[in-house]
Design brief:
The complex is a heterodimer of chains A (about 325) and B (about 280). Chain A is of the alpha/beta class and about 325 residues long. Chain A is built from 13 helices and 12 strands. Chain A has 2 domains: about 160 residues, Thiamin diphosphate (ThDP)-binding fold, Pyr/PP domains (Rossmann fold, 3-Layer(aba) Sandwich); about 130 residues, Rossmann fold. In chain A, the strands form 2 sheets. Chain A has a 7-stranded mixed β-sheet with strand order 2-1-3-4-6-5-10, with helices on both faces. In chain A, strands 7-9-8-11-12 form a 5-stranded mixed β-sheet, with helices on both faces. The longest helix of chain A is centred in the N-terminal third of the chain and has 15 residues. Chain A is globular and about 60 Å long. Chain B has about 280 residues and is an alpha/beta fold. Chain B is built from 10 helices and 7 strands. In chain B, the strands form 2 sheets. A 5-stranded parallel β-sheet of chain B has the order 1-2-3-7-6, sandwiched between helices. Chain B has a two-stranded antiparallel sheet with strand order 4-5. In chain B, a hairpin with a 2-residue loop joins strand 4 and strand 5. In chain B, about 50% of the residues are buried. Classes of the chains: A alpha/beta (about 325), B alpha/beta (about 280).
């Protein structure tokens, strides 16, 4: 299978879902040729609503559709959905408990050509803080496609974070995707890499390089940031004694924060967090260079691993 | 509508005003002004126009009503309780943490509330979604949204308005409780909206302007909106904030303040309620 971007895999999967589930409707905000919700729109024009450049309105229209039993997937840029439309999401989706699926595309730094206005580096923090929200972050294109029917089937609001780009393909664990259950992608007992989204593939590379240095790293994929699989994280903490978290997100409020919360209450072992260190990020020539520049390189993961091993008792 | 029906709905409006003020007084919190201004509108909707079944509040083809101006919750609760959605006694401890009925309407806690509200601005856009769903599912229900004129200062109202027009949602009716008073003062001073009718027309809506305290006009406007087949309708209901209580009328103070015992007694007397002691 040719390498495709996560958004393309998502767009195709959404259109496939539309063919089997007539309750599914899709909405977009004049970004359907970017989010690729237009695949759905072309096949099911009567179930596709382009709301124009108005994310808050799209959320509320989706809320109304959900109240009447439809399963709306709303599509747009993560930066706008998680910020401009956050009040609508809090009040009408979370508090009102409406079955809206928020497909937040162009997440993280993946819109590397457009710069800090378009990057979404606080969305996980914003959405994780909302009662009643489930936050799911696929690690690669195949996984994004596999999640789509699961997200549709899931009863309740979901924030589904989609990269504009292709991400490194993630090694298969053999275990099925299940909301709220992390996956162990690599066994290891010296330390644990806990990764989400695009950083799962980078951590897999880091684990291979650590192995050549004689360091045996476990790799956990946390696709569901909320509810967090704290059991899996605590088990890894007690068995390996040191953790490194990795996320394409600001260091405040995302995966690293969530892991720190779990560890501090359940098994306080050393943790190093690989993330963007609380600054706005520049425009880049390509995503790989940009991520490397912003503190998300494989080298950074390896360095954090060595630091955390030095702190391990 | 027969003269008898008008008299009956006028009496219901009076009762809803009395209920609302008593509820707000007992709770020590609430929004009397905007409850009093919308009493006839709620009376006509809940006791005449809406196709609803209190015994089956989640009936799929029921008409939907969104109280976008959710702070008028005392009025909505009074209407729902009198209509039989839940016993009035459930409001005896309104405001306490163990009362299911929240300060602002919560669809998960109060039977008959179609959508949670309280933050202004949401109703029109949510109504668009409900109206689109009716079309998709080939259901005949209509969606009604009641919002305030001050609420029309929120930009999302107009995002929803143009969306409704794009999809020619003739099954959607908005009603603006146009009382020209908001929390900080007169709407025409805080942030002027006139010509408000022109704004709705420009967004693609059919506009009907009425006296919102006339049972007959409210009823006829709702009937008229059902006869429009190619665009959404907004009823600009000209009303008086605090209607029916002389010292509350047109006073922004009474947007969100609570009458004390003496004030309540005077208000109830003006509304024809006989009190004892």
């Amino acid at each position: 299978m040719a390498e495709i971007s996560m958004r393309e895999a998502y767009g195709r999967a959404l259109a496939e879902l539309g063919a089997v589930n007539p309750r599914v409707v899709a909405l977009d905000v004049d970004t359907s040729t970017s989010t690729l919700s237009n695949f759905f729109g072309h096949r099911f024009p009567e179930r596709f609503f382009n709301i124009g450049i108005a994310e808050p309105c799209m959320v509320d229209v989706a809320v109304g559709l959900a109240l009447a039993g439809q399963i709306p997937f709303i599509n747009g840029f993560a930066s706008l959905l998680s910020l401009r439309a956050l009040e609508q999401i809090r009040t009408c989706v979370c508090y009102g408990r409406t079955n809206v699926k928020i497909a937040a595309s162009y997440a993280g730094l993946s819109d590397f050509k457009d710069g800090a206005t378009h990057y979404s580096i606080t969305d996980l923090a914003n959405l994780r803080a909302l009662p009643g929200m489930t936050v799911i972050v696929p690690a690669d294109a195949d996984e994004a496609a596999a999640w789509v029917p699961i997200v549709a089937e899931f009863d309740g609001p979901v924030y589904f974070r989609i990269s504009r780009a292709g991400t490194l393909a993630v090694p298969s664990s053999g275990s099925p995707l299940q909301v709220g259950k992390g996956r162990t992608l690599r066994a290891g007992n010296d330390l644990t890499l806990v990764a989400i989204g695009s950083m799962v593939g980078r951590c897999a590379l880091a684990a291979e390089q650590l192995a050549t240095l004689g360091i045996d790293a476990r790799l956990l994929e946390i696709h569901t940031l909320k509810p967090l699989d704290s059991d899996l994280i605590l088990q890894a903490a007690s068995e390996t004694g040191a953790l490194v978290s990795a996320e394409e997100h600001n260091i405040i409020g995302g995966l690293g924060s969530a892991v720190a919360e779990v560890l501090s209450e359940g098994c306080p072992v050393p943790l190093e967090r690989v993330a963007i260190h609380d600054h706005f990020c520049p425009t880049g020539r390509n995503l790989d260079i940009l991520m490397d520049t912003c503190g998300l390189s494989v080298k950074e993961i390896i360095g954090a691993s060595q630091r955390v091993l030095g702190r391990k008792k | 509508m027969t003269p008898e029906e008008i008299v009956e709905l006028e009496e219901i409006s009076r009762r809803l005003r009395i209920d609302s003020l008593k509820l707000i007084h007992r709770r020590g919190a609430g929004h009397p002004g905007g409850a009093l201004s919308a009493a006839e509108i709620l009376a006509v909707l809940y006791f005449h126009a809406l196709h609803i079944d209190p015994a089956n509040p989640s009936w799929n083809d029921r008409d939907r009503f969104i109280l976008s101006k959710g702070h008028a919750s005392a009025l909505l609760y009074s209407a729902l309780a009198r209509r039989g959605f839940f016993p009035f006694s459930e409001l005896d401890n309104w405001g306490e943490v163990d009362c299911p009925h929240q300060g602002h309407p919560d669809r998960l806690k109060t039977p008959g509330v179609d959508m949670t509200s309280g933050i202004l601005g949401h109703g029109v856009a949510i109504g668009v979604g409900l109206a689109l769903a009716a079309r998709l599912q080939k259901l005949s229900y209509r969606t009604y949204v009641l919002l305030g004129d001050g609420e029309c200062q929120a930009g999302i109202v107009w995002e929803g308005a143009v969306t409704a027009a794009k999809y020619h949602l003739a099954n959607l009716t908005a009603i603006v409780d146009n009382n020209d008073v908001q929390l900080d003062g007169p709407v025409h001073e805080i942030m002027p909206l006139e010509p408000l009718a022109g704004k709705w027309v420009a967004c693609g809506w059919r506009v009907i302007e009425i006296n919102g305290h006339s049972i007959q006009q409210v009823s006829e406007a709702l009937e008229f909106s059902r006869e429009i087949h190619d665009q959404p309708t907004v009823i600009l209901a000209h009303t008086t904030k605090g209607k029916g209580v002389s010292f509350m009328e047109n006073q922004s103070y009474w947007h969100g303040n609570v009458p004390n015992a003496d004030q309540l007694a005077q208000a109830l007397a003006e509304l024809g309620e006989v009190t004892h002691g």
